[in-house]
Known about the structure:
mainly alpha; Arc Repressor Mutant, subunit A; Tetracycline Repressor, domain 2; 2 domains; 8 helices; about 75% helix; elongated; HTH_TetR; HTH-type_TetR-like_transc_reg; transcription; DNA-binding
Amino acid sequence: MGKNNGATREKILDTVTELFVDKGYHGTGVQEICKAVNLGRGALYYHIGSKEQILFEISMSLLQMAHDATVPHVQTDDPPEVKLRNIARALLRHHATHGGGWQVAIREARFLSEEHQRKVVGARREFEQIWYRVLRDGATAGQWGPVDGIDVRAVLGMFNYTARWMRSDGPLSPEQIADRFVDLLLDGLKGKPADQ
């Protein structure tokens, strides 16, 4: 794909994300998308495909960006608590920049085709595994109690919900919010019995 095609595709994704935030997936028509991105229906389909394909690409691109922002922090020799704090900060920085997209991806994912839902769920599980490994390593090191998949989903649910309310111009930075969340999390995990 040429440079202009990439720029056009990115512009389409950004514009359609805003439309989906404002009007929802079903409330946004293809004609409205064409008008917003200044392309005819044929040109839109050339660059993106279908409206459902746009929703899929929004979801997958956000997961990939979150993955890419997180991985460098787990490939260090830092102790698990430092890794946890760093991946939490990275995720909330990402949400501060792409909160609208995350609202769309979380709220509208049910409208994806079965094939696209499988791919998104697979990418989410891969991202969850990054968090699980960090949390498991901390438990193994005795820094907190044992964790399982439910714990990881609960933790990520707490962090991902910030996309709905966190603002980049808010009174606390994404890093400060992440640190408060990690403090709450660690207080709970440190008191968790080993037999759960």
